[in-house]
Amino acid sequence: MISRTIKQVVFGLNEFVNSIYNDGNPLKDYVVMKHIGTNMTNNISDEKIFVNLINIEEDIVYKNQMSANLFTGTTVQSGAYSMRVNLYVLFAFNPGETNDEYSDSIKLLNDVLRYFQGHRNMEVDFPPTPAFTLDVNYHNVSLEDSNNLWSNMGGEQKPYAIFKFRLLEIEPKNSTVPTSSIITIPELTVGHK
């Protein structure tokens, strides 16, 4: 589900960038899902924007929501609940090796900001899973955190932006073994004095 969501983001962003720079030619892969630790300065390729998942965070606000319960007389059967997560996705830009290529990477950074400003809510649809909407927010990173991020990824800092995609719902896997707990509620008798 996470991989397919990011692939859909890459596809939509690729269409947007191609509409700006490609003049009706066959679609190029300007945007690719790629591990940032690999060499980003490949001038042979059209790849200019690298998309990388850098963190997954469980949304604890929704963790306390009640799971699906089935009440039958004096028994409550409780099933597993869905996990809701936020994805932090890094968009890094290939700076190339010349000043003009670096300038182009900054233009692409601006285009990505424009794209997500116009797509604050993204519809994600993977049948047979029901369609859902992700909220997209720019994620600010301090200079210190930025330095730590690039150091941990083993590369020199590139122009980049991080976006938070809120509330991807991950359903528990169906199982033939019951994963629910059953609670029996004793019957209460009301007496008269």
Q: Could you walk me through the main structural features you see in this protein, from its secondary elements to its overall organization?
A:
The protein is an alpha+beta fold and 193 residues long. It has one domain. It has helices spanning 2-21, 60-63, 99-118, 143-152; strands at 31-33, 49-58, 69-72, 75-78, 83-93, 121-124, 132-138, 160-170, 181-184. The strands form 2 sheets. It has a 6-stranded mixed beta sheet. The protein is elongated. 15% of the residues are buried.
Task: Lay out the secondary structure.
Blueprint: H1 2-21, E1 31-33, E2 49-58, H2 60-63, E3 69-72, E4 75-78, E5 83-93, H3 99-118, E6 121-124, E7 132-138, H4 143-152, E8 160-170, E9 181-184
Parallel strand pairs: 1-2
Antiparallel strand pairs: 2-5, 3-4, 4-9, 5-8, 6-7, 7-8
End-to-end Cα distance, whole Å, is: 61 Å
Radius of gyration based on Cα positions: 23 Å
The overall pLDDT, averaged over residues, is: 80
What number of domains?
Answer: 1
User: How many individual helices?
Assistant: 4
What's the total number of strands?
Answer: 9
Task: Indicate the percent of residues in helices.
Answer: 25-40%
N-to-C SSE string, H for helix and E for strand:
HEEHEEEHEEHEE
Low-confidence stretches: 175-179
Strand order of the largest sheet: 1-2-5-8-7-6
Largest sheet: 6 strands, mixed
